[in-house]
Amino acid sequence: MLKIHxxxxxxxPHMTHSTxxxxxxxxxxxxxxxxxxxxxxxxxGEAKWVLEGPQxxxxxxxxxxxxxxxxxxxxDWFDFAED
Length: 83
Known about the structure:
Layout: H1 33-44, H2 57-72
């Protein structure tokens, strides 16, 4: 069983107060098919992406069971549950 030792003291980093504003790095585009499609549509002024309601749970479970079945047929598939 995991035991917590209360005598362990880890240093907490301190933020120095500065007058400079924090700047985040610019967002980089990912090479993902959906992201690229959304970016291209928004640049063309055709951004009509709409989130739909949740799918039927039974339909989703059936679809996911088929995906798992297809993956398990792959000879390189490794199932951590069997390890």
